[in-house]
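Example 3.2
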Amino acid sequence: MSFWRDPIIFIIEWAKGLLAGIGWGPGWATTVGFVIGAFVLAAGAMFFVVFLIWYERKLIGRLQDRFGPNRVGPWGLFQPIADMLKIFTKELITPSGVDWIAYNLAPVLSVAAVLMMWAVTPFSKTFFGVNISVGILFLIAVGGLGEVGIILAGWGSNNKYALVGALRAVAQLCSYEVPFVISALVPVMLTGSMSLVDIVEAQNPWYILVAPAAALIFFIASVAETGRAPFDLAEAESEIVAGYNVEYSGLKFGMFFVGEFLHAFTASFIFVTVFLGGWRGPGADQIPVLGLVYFMIKTFIVYFALILFRGTNPRFRIDQMMDLNWKVLTPLSLVVIMVIALVDRLFASSADWLRTVILLAANLVILVVAERLIRRGVKTTRPEVGSRQRPVASPDNLFIQPGSGAKG
């Protein structure tokens, strides 16, 4: 394997050979390689958050006609580093009466749940942690650990406001798991495998062109799963002080935000893996490093859309958020998966291009019909201006007499 064609695998194989040369057997060399790879991937992801914070703050500032960070370093590049140093030096305060295990385990789980998703994601044809046959199921299961972390933070803090924020997180995240899982079944059906490596290699064409309705549901549910605006009801500062993490300070408080920013980027590349062909692109099979470049370009495009979604939409009310899930996304995802399963079965023996066109047409019809039904459902009739007579002020009705039965 040439260094220029696949530098990461070249370095890994060189390290394994070095360990084998000093007397370590192939099994030990492989184990040490996995440990080093996991450490490098986790550390790289944590440091990458520094750039993500700067990128997102700068982009949202431009979207909202602000400058964003522009003082510390050129273009404000060192502002996240200053924030990181401030977080590291702040005092760690543990309130009295907390559940010590739950309180301290929550921030760790919020970050670990996201990092575990990186272990099964194929970043190129040869660069991935492990190829397991239930990759999609693993992502869904690991995503639940983040929700457990939020629940532990609210329960272990011994604070009513934190508990309210955690309960709202249970309602939001567990509810949006339903359309998320159902829409994720579409690529599994089309591929015939739950392995993320198999799903990427089977996308010819990309599944967003075959099932755009499922991709749209998956994207919206992914944004809700990250708990960011406009779905940040679990952390609505203006309503419940600061949400489930109100009793945390210093580095523990920062861990929740590291998990949030990292989860947003992780949701972007999971969408790329499942619906945008992952690392696939011209020459990616022959030169694996090109696949990593394609993967990152696609991921940043989706990440830009996610930030645009966050920076231009106001927060939902809790009833609106639940209505969107249970009255729109969940029924729509059920319809999509049934229609795709039926069409895929009926045209299984047809040419690939004909099957793709029919699946695309069916998805577009579903989206058009759903849009019309949603518009009809949310339309409200406003009372006409002259239909309601306002009372005229007079000496007789300026004051309501006690016992008259009138309501003020």
